[in-house]
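Before the break, one more example. Copy the sequence into your notebook; we will annotate it together after we see the structure.
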Amino acid sequence: MLQKRGKPWYEEVFDEDFLRTLPFMTPEQTAREVKFIREALSPAKGGDVLDIGCGYGRHALELAQQGLRLTGLDLSLPMLIKAADSAQRRGLAVNFVHADMREMTFNAQFDAAYCVLSSFGYFDEETNLRVATAIGRALKPGGRFLLDIINRDYIVRDLPSRVWWEGDGCVVLEEVDFNYHTSRVLIRRSVVFGNGRQSEQEISLRAYSLHEVGKLLRQAGLRVLDVSGGIATKSKFYGAASRNILALCERPAL
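Here is what the structure looks like once it is written out:
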């Protein structure tokens, strides 16, 4: 039986079923990503770090293990429950917060923040800017923010496309297209579970080119320090050949 969804996709997609569709990430891959995040942000030992769109806490838990004080924010309760269970099992103290990034009210509270794996760009232009501004406000003066998003100039070369993979007792098919008028990536996900149940979801993400994300961050009151095209190419960006944009910026000191 087909499940139809009525709310905005980002309020519905990240449920227990979504957890089952996630590709397996090796500990080595997580360690590489965490090393990049930590080196980019360079927080002092014991510093306060905010993970925006933390999901099931894959990065937050590792950074907490390394002695940082983590706050993980996400709108998905199933994701946060999985994250909190993992933290408890590992004896780690992470402050997981069930909240909407559009309603963040932190003020000069964090030494550093990050939003990775395309957890940014869910909303319309004005709201995306509002979120970026709220992130900047959450940082202490001189605090750093790392934003990891898909590079518009890279993705348009390979679309439309179809990919599929096996999850936990399910098969996932994604059909990806691009709207050139809105610069949004449109993803149609079809999931078939072992018992025959089917689920369909539509995801819409704003894809940014480098100059667009630079402008957005400046409008949000942040200063861009460095740009990488991937975790393996720190401080190097190769235009349309770079799959991602990893923009490191800071809240200017007073």
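The helical segments are 9-12, 16-21, 27-41, 58-65, 77-90, 125-138, 152-155, 210-219. The first helix runs from residue 9 to 12. Try to locate both features in your own notes.
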